[in-house]
Structures are given as C-alpha cells and as structure tokens.
User: Which sequence fits this backbone?
C-alpha cells in the first residue's frame, strides 16, 4: 500500500513521518500524474489559500476530484478539510477553489487567529472502538476551521464545545448556521462520509497514530499496519506530560 500526501505546503512531512512510523509507504504528491500511483491520499493542514493557488498552478483540482470519484480514500486535516468541503464560509475576499465531495459547510477560520490556537481532549468513541486506546484524543487546533452543517450521509466522529467568552468573532451568517446545527454550543471537528475523512485538528502533530490507522482501514489496510498508536502505555504518558502543550481552553 502507498499513501499519497499532497506536498504543496503545510504539514505534509509530519504525515509522512506518521505513516512511516506505522510501516506504510508515503509518497509526496505535487503533480496530477502522481496520483495514479497511490491507494489513498492525505491533504494536510497548512494555509488553505496558498495551497489552493499552488494546486491551481499545477492543475491539480481536476485530478483531485477524479481521485475522489474513484472511491479511493481521501483524508483532509485542517486546511485539507476546507479543500474537501462542498461549501466554505469565512473566506478571504474572492474566496478559493474547493475540491468538494464532502457534504458539509465549513467555516474557514472558526477558532480565530494563530495566537488563538489551542489543544483539547476530544471524545472519539468511534476511533476508540475501532483502534482501541483511550476514549479521548488530544486535538491540536491551529487557526482551525470548524464544520457548521453536515448532510444526512455524513457521520460525526468528534465535536467540540465552544467555550463561553472565547475570543472568536463570528459574522451573522455564521451565527445563524451555528444555531441550525442544534448542537448546543458545539461545532463538529471530525467527520466521515463514504471514502472521505476530515479532521479540523492535526493528528500528525501528536504521537498518537490512531487516526492514521483508522484511515488505512478505509483504504483496505491490513490490521498489521495499524499498530502505531502511541497513546497507550505508561512510558508514552510520561512523554506526553513532558511535552510542552499549548493552553487547553476549559
């Protein structure tokens, strides 16, 4: 199995390192023809507008849409989630081109600016049931988007309770859409729809590889690949405590 990682900008090297950790070959993707040689694709986090301009320059959008139509799994993290969404709000003037395919509305910069980045423990029952390990996952949110609406075929894998008084400025259109979700002060941060997986946070920036293993199962990966979760064991717990974390908003 070979998993492609879109390598235009952003955290593609971190995804490649996570794949290597669990024994899976990763391939940097920069040209449309390279997609013919991979079984699945990861679109990493980064600066979504810059990534979109580079993807347009390399004529990647038609190839990415065709790749999704083949039914091969595609996973978008942070900026990758924005790429996969059918609709995005909160964009810069003129917007950006989207790959589409994921039946949802995403707010491009819901959680604010770079200095408002944070980490939070997310309840992930589906991930824990499939991959084992703790019932929570440490989500790293960096200028992160959030999903405000989903279609009927979209499975919600994780959401996040928006803290009262959090310093995020929302437009009136976004506020009305947030109310329509009916999720009582929560926004969606991880979803699955058919062959598409999307997370608003960055699993590749943690030592826990369960999301990568989960994605490999979508790609038909053998169980033997999915052994890289480092969220278990006392040793790793000590390492996580020693690692400097960003603030956790309560």
Assistant:
């Amino acid at each position: 199995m070979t998993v492609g990682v879109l390598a235009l900008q952003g955290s593609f090297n971190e995804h490649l390192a996570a794949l290597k950790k669990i024994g899976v070959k990763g391939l940097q993707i920069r040209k449309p023809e390279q997609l013919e040689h991979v079984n699945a694709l990861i679109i990493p986090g980064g600066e979504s507008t810059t990534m979109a301009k580079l993807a347009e320059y390399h004529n990647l959008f038609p190839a990415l849409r065709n790749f999704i139509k083949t039914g091969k799994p595609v996973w978008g993290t942070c900026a990758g989630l924005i790429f996969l969404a059918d609709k995005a709000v909160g964009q810069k003037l003129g917007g950006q081109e989207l790959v589409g395919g994921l039946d949802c509305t995403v707010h491009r910069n819901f959680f604010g600016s770079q200095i408002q980045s944070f980490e939070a423990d997310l309840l992930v029952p589906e991930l824990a049931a499939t991959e084992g390990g703790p019932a929570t996952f440490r989500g790293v949110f960096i200028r992160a988007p959030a999903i405000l609406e989903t279609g009927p075929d979209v499975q919600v894998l994780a959401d996040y309770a928006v803290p009262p008084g959090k310093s995020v400025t929302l437009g009136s259109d976004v506020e009305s859409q947030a109310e329509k979700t009916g999720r009582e002060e929560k926004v969606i941060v991880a979803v699955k729809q058919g062959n598409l997986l999307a997370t608003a946070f960055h699993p590749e920036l943690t030592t826990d590889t369960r999301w990568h293993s989960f994605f490999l199962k979508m790609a038909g990966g053998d169980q033997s690949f999915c052994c890289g979760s480092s969220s278990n064991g006392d040793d790793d717990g000590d390492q996580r405590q020693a690692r400097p974390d960003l603030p956790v908003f309560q």
